[in-house]
UniProtKB/TrEMBL annotation:
The lineage of its organism: Eukaryota, Fungi, Dikarya, Basidiomycota, Agaricomycotina. The keyword tRNA-binding does not apply. Transmembrane segments: none annotated. Keywords: Repeat, WD repeat. It comes from the Eukaryota. This is WD40 repeat-like protein. PROSITE patterns: WD_REPEATS_1, WD_REPEATS_2, WD_REPEATS_REGION. Pfam families: WD40 (PF00400). Residues 374-404 are annotated as: Disordered. WD repeats lie at residues 83-115, 116-157, 172-206, 207-241, 275-310, 317-358.
Length: 404
């Protein structure tokens, strides 16, 4: 089944029962590429990051309510905000940018409350701990860092992998921290997902399986699994339940978790599911609050919504004229946000769809034709240059800018 909007459409998989619907709520036009989007914990606001500016929108009205600009920043060149994250209490917005700094903004006043400075290359990803005390950052300088929001010390705990020092592509593209606060996860340009003990910094696992750089990671709400998206055009679901159980058991008795450097065996966690369907790089992934759904954004300009348990695509959304650089799902699970190279962010509803009585056997051929037509439309769109072709996404491992 196909649903058409004025300048977007969604195709629903005819092979599965339709349980979700999607509708456009707001189109938020920016003056530069929208690199990142993030919902507040209560879902009332959406933050976006682009060149030299972060903005906050009211998700109900679509109105811009806060504009954050660092007037002390260098006036020359581009400084793209590559990550924006609300603190869990909604008081602060953290931004990571190409100036290598992490800035904590007081949303009420619009002022910078604190600056964390230590990365040697651009900051590409941020994540708050559930209690809001710690913020995790990843950059092109091969390291993951944890910063204490309550400490007066400017120093961070640095996480790295000694075995990757000689690798050519070890920039960090994406970070996440488990709800328990025990594990830190990062995606790397060498196609590996790494997991550390958040308290000790011990490297606990390397997840290998992608054939190209891992560009996005997201942890399931129960902490027992995680999803990664890669430039190899796939997503993978990794079962880390055994590792989580080991860590919890040690923490419960005050013990220390043994890391790979101390003899822990690599590969105890493994990939259980592959998500295939994108025609180009997977640049962003997110999971729903209940862990039921996975959403992905790609260079192929599509957003795909997946069942996390089966890896079956539920629907594909075509609503942008350039790469989907960032996706996020609201904590309440009823909204989807996208950020794109076409200088737009969009907010969609992703609501439960009432049961539909239909004869799938009778309609399957017709619906499959619609799916093929959608693929054809997407392929035709990909033959044309991006609407905003002057911008290039800088990969952490490269000095050149690569068209996305």
């Amino acid at each position: 089944m196909k649903k058409d909007g004025s300048d977007w459409f969604a195709i629903f998989n005819p092979k599965v029962k339709r349980v979700l619907d999607v509708s456009l709520m707001h189109t938020l036009t920016h003056e530069s590429v929208v690199c990142c989007v993030h919902f507040s914990a209560d879902g009332k606001y959406l933050a976006t990051g682009c060149n030299r500016i972060a903005q906050i929108y009211d998700t109900k009205t679509g109105a811009k309510v806060v504009v954050l600009i660092d007037k002390s920043a260098s006036k020359t060149g581009d400084i793209y905000f590559r990550s924006v994250r609300f603190s869990p209490d909604g008081k602060y917005l953290a931004t990571g940018a190409e100036d290598k700094k992490i800035k904590i903004w007081d949303i009420r006043t619009g002022m910078i409350r604190r600056v964390f400075d230590g990365h040697q290359q651009e900051v590409y990803s941020l994540a708050f701990s559930l209690d809001g005390r710690f913020i995790v950052s990843g950059s092109g300088s091969k390291t993951v860092r944890i910063w204490d929001m309550e400490s007066s010390s400017p120093e961070a705990k640095v996480f790295s992998d000694s075995d990757s020092d000689s690798a050519c592509d070890t920039g960090v593209t994406s970070v996440a921290i488990s709800a328990s606060g025990h594990l830190v996860v990062a995606g790397f340009l060498d196609a590996v997902v790494r997991i550390w003990d958040a308290q000790t910094g011990a490297l606990l696992e390397r997840l290998r399986g992608h054939r190209d750089s891992v560009y996005s990671v997201a942890i399931m709400p129960d902490g027992k699994g995680l999803v990664s998206g890669s430039l190899d055009k796939t997503l993978k679901y990794w079962d880390v339940s055994g590792l989580v159980a080991q860590v919890k058991a040690k923490k419960d008795v005050g013990g220390t978790v043994v890391g790979l450097a101390e003899g822990k065996k690599e590969g105890e966690s493994h990939c259980t599911t592959n998500f295939t369907g994108h025609k180009n790089y997977v640049l962003s992934v997110a999971v729903s609050h209940d862990g039921q759904w996975v959403v992905s954004g790609s260079k192929d300009r599509s957003v795909q919504f997946w069942d996390s348990r089966t890896a079956i695509m539920q629907w594909v959304l075509l609503a942008h004229q350039n790469s989907i650089l960032s996706v996020d799902l609201s904590p309440a699970g009823n909204m989807l946000a996208t950020g794109s190279g076409d200088q737009q962010a969009r907010i969609f509803t992703a609501a439960t769809h009432p049961p539909v009585n239909m004869n799938l056997n009778r309609l399957q051929e017709q619906n499959m034709r619609r799916m093929e037509n959608a693929k054809g439309a997407q392929a035709a769109a990909n033959e044309h240059p991006p609407a905003k072709a002057g911008w290039r996404l800088r990969l952490p491992s490269q000095n050149a800018r690569v068209r996305v």
